[in-house]
Amino acid sequence: MAMSCSSFSYKLIATQGLARRGRIKTPRGIVDTPTFMPVGTQATVKAMTPAALKDIGTQIILSNTYHLYMRPGEKIISCANGLHRFMGWSGPILTDSGGFQSFSLGKLVKISDEGIYFASHIDGSRYMLSPEKAIEIQQLLGSDIMMCLDECVAYPSTKDYIKNAVRRTSMWARRCLAARSEDRALFGIAQGGVYPDLRVESAQEISGLPFEGFAIGGLSVGEGRSFMLETLDATLPYIPHEKPRYLMGVGTPLDIVEAVARGIDMFDCVLPTRNARNGMLFTRNGKISLKQVRYKEDNSPPDCKCNCYTCRNFTLAYLRHLFVSHEILGSILNTIHNLYFYLELMSDIRHSIEENYFDDVKKYIREVYND
Questions:
Q1: Which CATH number is 9-269 given?
Q2: Whole-angstrom distance between the N-terminal and C-terminal Cα of the chain?
Q3: Per-residue pLDDT tens for 181-197?
Q4: Quick check: is 268 catalytic?
């Protein structure tokens, strides 16, 4: 019989419509939901120290099984007393299973019921990632929340192909549960492309298994916002209400508020950190591109209402100078600001659900970020 996790719990605190305010308890700390997880792909959130992440209010980060499996290797991290000690982060860590990266970054050899056969993007060496191997790696990493291996299909794909991927994802989910041998939370993943009937089928099968939480995968892969939201509308009624719900790889501020309005609790996305390195800032008044000449002599902060370290100490003119000069400090300051914006947005959402004015937050983000 597959073991369960006794050290993980979720409590629903308040709702407004379908939007949920909750709290996740893990051995390494509390995670207030809805939450955004900064992405630390290779055991680092780019341009951020762990101390800086803590200072801006980060409660949980995401790291990547595939990348750490390829380099430096899960055994090296295990010998360093796990991922938390290795990267100097004491809070909760969620690790994805590595399935998506295995066939998007590595050279895919084939996918079978046994697992994903691929060649490393680093040196071309060949590997097979099975459900059992994905769990073994994540347990050696010591993550607080592990993800099942799933088959994330590209958009567009034929319905027959996606139907087989749904079958395989369900089979792999059972094998992941059977492979878990430590008291660590494990989330199942529902797939199904943009086909409502396949999404319902996958959600019903996955939600019938004893996971600590449930994720919706295979979205934000090019299908567009309308398809994504329609898919969420079709899927979420079949995802358990009493456990956390995670929308993988999403997204923009507008994506987040729309998904929260439908009952999503957890998000991750590279957008705030990647955009920061490319000179794009998120503010309460919309996006700012430091590439634009108009900011060359602008001595105002990026956001007058923002209390982050960057906005309290630096001007748009200085940030633009750093960006065009390719200075590392520019990436650091931009990343601090963007992640602070995302975490403040989540805090505002949580408070608005508790105080019953979430619709106002949603309306505001729709107006400012309706791009």
A1: 3.20.20.105
A2: 49
A3: 999 999 999 999 999 99
A4: yes
Residue 2 has pLDDT above 70, yes or no: no
Q: What residues contact 65, with CB distance under 8 A and at least 6 apart?
A: 95, 96, 97, 98, 134, 137, 138, 141, 147
| Given 144, 265, 268, 303, the catalytic residue | 268
pTM for the complete prediction? Answer: 0.97
> How far, in Å, CA of 57 to CA of 224, rounded?
31
Q: Which member of 96, 144, 255, 303 is catalytic?
A: 96
Tell me 180's DSSP state. -
Helix %, strand %, coil % for the chain, to 5?
A: 45, 20, 35
How far is CA 193 from each of CA 18, 105, 174, 216, 228, rounded to the nearest angstrom?
23, 20, 20, 10, 9
Question: How does 55-70 read in b/e, with b if 16+ C-beta sit within 10 Å?
Answer: ebebbbbbbbbbbbbb
> How big is the chain by its Cα radius of gyration, in Å?
20
Is the bond leading into 240 cis (omega within 30 degrees of zero)?
A: no
Q: What is the pLDDT of residues 194-207, one digit of tens each?
A: 999 999 999 999 99
Domain ranges of the chain: 9-269, 276-362
Q: How far apart are CA 312 and CA 323, in angstroms?
A: 18
What's the pLDDT tens digit per position in 286-326? 999 999 999 999 999 999 999 999 999 999 999 999 999 99
**Residue 99: φ, ψ to 5°:** -60, -45
| Token pair recorded at residue 35 | 């939450």
